[in-house]
Write a structure and sequence with these properties.
Elements lengths: L30 E3 L1 H7 L3 E6 L9 H14 L4 E5 L3 H13 L2 E7 L5 H9 L3 E5 L3 H14 L3 E2 L6 H6 L1 H10 L4 E5 L4 H15 L8 E7 L4 H7 L26 H10 L3 E5 L1 H15 L5 H15 L8 E6 L7 H8 L9 H9 L1
Parallel strand pairs: 2-10, 3-4, 3-6, 4-5, 7-8, 7-10, 8-9
Antiparallel strand pairs: 1-2
Helix pairs in contact: 2-3, 3-4, 7-8, 8-10, 9-10, 11-12
This protein binds ligand F0G.
Ligand F0G binds next to helix 3, helix 8 and helix 12.
Length: 356
Amino acid sequence: LDGSNITVWKYRSLLPVKIDPVTLKEGGTPLYRAERLEKEVGVRRVYVKHEGLNPSGSFKDRGMTVGVTKALELGRKAVACASTGNTSASMAMYAAKAGLKAYVLLPAGKVALGKVAQALMHGAKVIGIDGNFDDALRIVREVCSREPIYLLNSINPFRPEGQKTIAYEIADEIGVPDRVVLPVGNAGNISAIYKGFKELREVGLTDSMPKMTGIQAEGAAPIYRAFKEGKEDITPMENPETIATAIRIGNPVSAKKALRAIYSTNGLAEVVSDSEIIEAQKFLAAKEGIGVEPASAASVAGLRKLAANGMLDPDETIVCVVTGNLLKDPETVVRVCGEPVKVEASVEAVIRAMRA
Ligand code: F0G
């Protein structure tokens, strides 16, 4: 396979598909050393894995390349998902490549503009529902049980198989870190990355596991709440709300798996406020040159909070997974940064504006 060495399909022997993959060269994302962030949080080594640099701009592509390939292998003609945006953008893109019909259900008015634009342009049938993500997921599961449509949410077991390659890539590049920090919404990704590291241990490539550390938004934090009480499962939150619309989820479908991943690695769950999320987004963009969407910045916001609360060992090696690209959500950027200043078209006016 041409170029396979830099994609998810580098790990083909560990991925459960038989046919040639539907690939857009996903995976192989950069792992940046984040020195200013290290200083800030007082930890020896902090890396940021920029999943926003996947073809559709999020980590979802790792799962979709496998999930859509599986749909073809099974002879399916149509695929569907519920989404807070990124899953739908990615599914639409891979369905286009595969020649499959795509249907996406979104919570109307609560999906970042860039993501809707992608789903539309890649040719999916986009249906907004008057409800939240949890409602959309319940409905699409029922629809797919009645209609001959292949469901591609992360309850589909092949999606996490692709996403577990995040763990393989990290281990390939720097070995198994002490801690992996990532945002948690529907809880598929934390479970998938945990599985990836667990497999490396099971085949004897390592005997260590990273402390899996899940970060949620304050207004959408059922897993954090369960963790605080030492519970194995969550109580769903009825009306989740956060500026990080990607993780605006009250009833995560993989909650139990996520909690197991956290407990069994001696990891942590933490919550961050919307303003902490935006501050972290700005810090990453302006101090590290890493442009991410709000949900992704939750991992860094969580890291800062854990550091401030003395929860981190200064000798740790930490990887923050940032999950989606800055360009996904331009409307929030304009809201929090303001519009550019506007001046008359003269040298004097421009210099005045520069000095202001
Ligand atoms: N970060 C981003 C940018 C996301 O889009 C998502 C989930 C997450 C983090 C959380 O990952 O659900 O595996 O815990 N987005 C889904 C979607 C729900 O529909 O795009 P998770």
